[in-house]
Amino acid sequence: MNEAQSDKDLSDWLSIRRSHSSSRQLLLMAYKNTSRQYSALQTLITSLDSCLILGNEHTKRSLGSDYVKTNTNVIFTQASHIKPLLGKDFDLVIYDCMDGIVANTLFAISGLIRRSGLLVMLCPKLANWPSYFARHQGIKFSYGEAHTECVFASFLSGHFLGDSQVAQIDDSGAILPIVASQAEPELTLENVCDAPPSSLRQSGFTLSKKQQDIFNKILRAWDEKHISNSLITGARGRGKSTLLGFLAFEALRRVLIGTIQSENDDSQIAICAPTASQAKIVLDVVNKLLTQDSSLSSSQISLIKNTNIIQSYAPDQSDQIPENSYLFIDEAASMAPELIDKLCEKVSHTVLSSTMDGYEGSGKGLLYRWLPMQINTTEHYRLYQAFRWDNNDALENMMAAIFSPNLTVLDAEQPTSTLHISDGLHCLNKSELLGDFKLFRECFSLLQGAHYQSTPNDIQRMLSASDYHIWLYIENSQCVGIICTIEEGGADTFYENQLRFDIAMGKRRVQGHMSAQALAQALQIPEVLGEPTLRINRIAVHPQIQGQGIGSQMLSCLKKIFLQTKNQKQNLSTSFGMTPKLVKFWQANSFRLVKLGYRKDTSSGAVTGHFMHSESESYKAIHDLAKASQAIDMHYLKRFNPSIYRSIPIELLTFENKETIEEAKKSITKQKRALFVNETLSFDMSKSSLAYCLYHSSESNLGPARSLFEELHQPNLSKTQKLENASKLRALMKAENIGKHLR
Fold first, then answer.
1. Which residues contact 700 (CB under 8 A, 6 or more apart)?
2. Residue 94 burial (CB count, 10 A)
């Protein structure tokens, strides 16, 4: 096909799509000829009103840098800078995938396209995807990981190839199907609310009938004070954030005109979201309503601008929110249930909103884990109708099926797949997922339901990484559980002595190998990296049969394979945010804490802990050292970071009072003191041992050293000041021989 014919076919297709009010679609553009690609992109951009291009400098040059700069309907950005654009919409989104596909990005940008719009992927031919994207991976994999075929690319290309609604164009020809739009969503006059609150009638905004119904019910709940929490859920594009903004504005208006009063007059509108950009979407709605509302006086508007009456907060800032506030949480499913509880119990009324299938995390965990525990205090509202596209939109249906599969009900009459897997724990051959979408759906819907942080990138990594293994637990021909494991460490990967040493001393950190690196750094033992470790990254049980010991059975099966088989002996580890419930589960299954984190995870609000099975070879060898290291860390946290110390489950705050552990504490402290003084170990890597050294020494000249140590913990200390103080402390300890005598 010549260039002129190709452009004509594309123009005709675009013209037909406009005249027939087509559904949103995916167009795969796989030109090798750059001039033809340029011509086709120009045709697309000039035919549609607004365009977002995700690419690099090569993409910009291929389109013409001046053209991109001067064209006001085109926004150009890198794929990694997509977050500030979430909540906006475009007629055309072009994603240059030649440097690799990122699943999170692909799923996110498909939600930025308005009705009848197009998502264009600049990519190789589908047949070349498995080998091409093995070389151009898009996301990072563990150090030492390599593969010649990308299973995720095979899965994705197979899905696109089998979908008759996906359009394709390349040097040899074009497949350009027309997908008719379904019935228009709530746009008719009778479906648009005809009686918004009087203060909002002049705003230019309108709520749908369903949104207005939810709005009114939540206002009644505020007035009657019979329910403290309201949860609004739905798929993306349903207007949840807009509704949240309307509610936040109404609360703000009530505060200003005095219908919400508190004894201390410190009512505040608190907006909380996992990211600042997500909170800004809600704040933008409030600000737009504020500028267009005629019922507020200039003095009231000035009060808003000059005070913190409306404020955004990070998820871990619950202690900063005034008690009389009205709290609005967007994308709540991206937060851990425990963190949501802390936020909700602080205020009188909370409105939560969440997507059930977002790119930052699955909302299903919120429904399965948090909502059942809040049945008496939370009213759940659902938005089903799409606003930016049709309910049966072709692009949305395809993306949801791939990246957010729905959990199916267990049915003895319907086996999991056609594989006829026997009962028990089985390591899945990932290629089996390529032709068995039912099995794929079972696997990943289980993970999304159990883990609030599961994202499309997890699917990409699980399918593509050769060190990532998927284990299915089958019972009565049904997939009732899943475990995901990652191979870490090992002499074949960490064969360089210098690399092992640098990691153990905190001078280097490689991608992946989380538990292996954490343990090597905690104990300054480079040899730990040479021991093969299997880290349990995910574990999930179907909600219908949770609480019946299935999770423990799965771990027991895995232990038999990896710890009790002569040819398979290696370490078995895991890491997680340490809530009391999770600690109890893992300890009951013989996993023991070996490394304590120093910070709270922003999403979970819990301190991370690294655990290892008590029958692991490495655990037997380092048991006393690990226990001693934890005791030293606890001593440091209790004195210098009490908020972290208080968040550690009480089960972990008691230690064996063994002579060998006491000797190990002295040994670790002296070793880290020597490494710090000799400039081998940084202050941050050695601070817990230095604290133990300074506050357990029998020496009398510790005042100046303690003062320097405490200065290093002052807030807002610059990097330069910290380095200078650490250098002074190092010199003082060396000159005075501080820390050589521990009581």
1. none
2. 25
Q: Which helix (H) or strand (E) holds 608?
A: strand 607-613
Closest to 618 (Cα-Cα) out of 528, 544, 553: 528
- Could you tell me which of 107, 110, 80, 71 has the C-alpha nearest to residue 92? 110
Q: Strands of 372-437 (E only): list them.
A: 378-382, 424-427
Residue 742 is classified by DSSP as B
Q: Determine the pLDDT at residue 604.
A: 62
Whole-number Å distance between alpha carbons of 597 and 578: 10
Q: What residue type is 599 in one-letter code?
A: R
In sequence order, what are the residues at sequence separation of 6 or more whose Cβ sits closer than 8 angstroms to the Cβ of residue 693?
A: 669, 670, 673, 738, 739, 742
Strands (E), 511-578: 533-541, 571-577
Task: Reply yes or no on whether the pLDDT at 195 is more than 60.
Answer: no
Residue 647: partners with Cβ closer than 8 Å, 6 or more residues away: 600, 605, 606, 607
pLDDT recorded at residue 488: 93
**Residue of 262, 264, 249 whose CA lies nearest to 219:** 249
Assigned token pair, 62: 């291929």
> Which residues are 573's β-sheet partners?
535, 612
Which CATH code, of 3.40.720.10, 3.40.50.11040, 3.10.290.10, 3.30.70.920, is assigned to 3-175?
3.40.50.11040
pLDDT at 655 over 90: no
List, in sequence order, every residue forming a beta bridge with 475; answer none if it has no partner.
478
Confidence check: pLDDT of 247 > 90: yes
* pLDDT of the residue at 196: 40
Is the pLDDT assigned to residue 359 strictly greater than 70? no
Q: Using the 8-state DSSP alphabet, how is residue 341 labeled? A: H
- The whole-angstrom separation of Cα 255 and Cα 264 is 13
**DSSP labels, 81-146:** G-GGGBTB-EEEEEEE-TT---HHHHHHHTTSEEEEEEEEEE---GGGHHHHHHHS-SS---TT--
Whether 445 contacts 368, CB under 8 Å: no
Which two tokens mark 120? 């264009």
Give residue-wise pLDDT tens across range 100-155: 999 999 999 999 999 899 999 999 999 999 999 999 988 888 888 877 889 999 99
Q: Can you spell out the DSSP letters for 447-487?
A: HHHH-TT--HHHHHHHHH-TTEEEEEEEETTEEEEEEEEEE
For 406-426, give one letter per residue: b (16+ CB within 10 A) or e: ebbebeeeebbbebebeeebb
User: How is residue 554 annotated by DSSP?
Assistant: H
Measured between alpha carbons, how far is 699 from 733 in angstroms, rounded to an integer? 12
3-state class (DSSP) for residue 24: coil
Quote the pLDDT of residue 199: 39
Taking a C-beta distance cutoff of 8 angstroms, is the pair 533, 571 a contact?
A: yes
Beta bridge partners of 484: 470, 538
User: What CATH code would you report for 403-622?
Assistant: 3.40.630.30
Six-digit token string for 459: 């699917």
Residue 225 clears pLDDT 90, i.e. is over it: no
When pLDDT is averaged across residues 626-647 and rounded to a whole number, the result is 90
Helix (H) or strand (E) holding 30: strand 25-30
- Cα(286)–Cα(289) distance, integer angstroms: 5
Please tell me which residue, 410 or 463, carries the higher pLDDT value.
Answer: 463
| Residue appearing with tokens 């670790």 | 668
Neighbouring-strand partners of residue 610: 575, 595
Cα-Cα-Cα-Cα dihedral of 203, 208, 213, 218, to 10°?
Answer: -50
Give the 3-state secondary structure of residue 8: helix
Structural fold of domain 189-382: Rossmann fold (3.40.50)
Query: What CA–CA distances, in Å, run from 355 to 332, 365, 386, 504?
Result: 8, 11, 12, 41
Backbone angles phi, psi at 190, to 5 degrees: -70, -15
Prediction pTM value = 0.82
